[in-house]
């Protein structure tokens, strides 16, 4: 059986993906070691190349699966506002910040400013294009770039606390997971995203 991410799904390949997901989340692409991934999965490291072609191919599958799971937990539903969608994503990241960490590591490996984008970015580009179209629809038909900038800003707002939790702990003198912090932080982010959405509607 071939998975949607383009690899043969077997107990061995799934064990490798699970081990790789932990390794990449903890150490990033450059810090991850195929020998460690294989050992955790209980197989020879040559199986990684047999299933995925390379360490980068394995990373591609890990990212694809993590993104698919995120979409399943917080899809941009028809009729849903940007604020509702973004805050659903925020709540998902709060429960499981793994995807945010993977994206941070990915940004270090593929430097867009140097023209290095992930080799598997075309599918994601289409995914976000559809999000921009959905945002245009719910805000009254603003232009693509304005909607894309608003979406990017909103994503940054909801993801930032989980990208730099160490800075939050320094500033707040407590972890961002603290209930009292969340009771203040979540509404503040929600209000800011709602302002972005309102401005987008006014400019349509």
Automatic annotation (TrEMBL):
Protein name as annotated: DNA-binding transcriptional regulator, AcrR family
Taxonomic lineage: Bacteria, Bacillati, Actinomycetota, Actinomycetes, Mycobacteriales
InterPro entries hit by this protein: Homeodomain-like_sf, HTH-type_TetR-like_transc_reg, HTH_TetR, Sco4008_C, Tet_transcr_reg_TetR-rel_C_sf
Domain HTH tetR-type intervals: 10-70
Keywords (A to Z) from UniProt: DNA-binding
DNA-binding is among the record's keywords: yes
GO terms (BP aspect): regulation of DNA-templated transcription
GO molecular function, one term: DNA binding
Record-annotated DNA-binding residue ranges: 33-52
SUPFAM superfamilies, alphabetized: Homeodomain-like, Tetracyclin repressor-like, C-terminal domain
């Amino acid at each position: 059986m071939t998975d949607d991410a383009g690899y043969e799904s077997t107990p061995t390949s799934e064990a490798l993906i699970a081990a790789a997901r932990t390794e990449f989340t903890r150490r990033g692409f450059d810090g991850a070691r195929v020998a460690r991934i294989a050992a955790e999965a209980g197989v020879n490291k040559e199986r990684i190349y047999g299933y995925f072609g390379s360490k980068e191919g394995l990373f591609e599958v890990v990212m694809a699966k993590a993104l698919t799971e995120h979409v399943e937990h917080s899809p941009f539903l028809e009729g849903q506002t940007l604020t509702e969608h973004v805050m659903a994503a925020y709540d998902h990241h709060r429960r499981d910040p793994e995807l945010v960490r993977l994206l941070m590591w990915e940004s270090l490996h593929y430097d867009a400013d140097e023209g290095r984008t992930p080799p598997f970015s075309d599918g994601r580009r289409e995914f976000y294009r559809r999000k921009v179209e959905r945002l245009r629809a719910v805000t009254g038909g603003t232009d693509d770039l304005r909607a894309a900038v608003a979406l990017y800003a909103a994503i940054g707002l909801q993801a930032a606390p989980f990208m730099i939790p160490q800075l939050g702990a320094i500033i707040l003198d407590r972890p961002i997971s603290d209930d009292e912090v969340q009771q203040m932080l979540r509404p503040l982010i929600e209000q800011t995203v709602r302002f972005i959405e309102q401005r987008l509607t006014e400019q349509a």
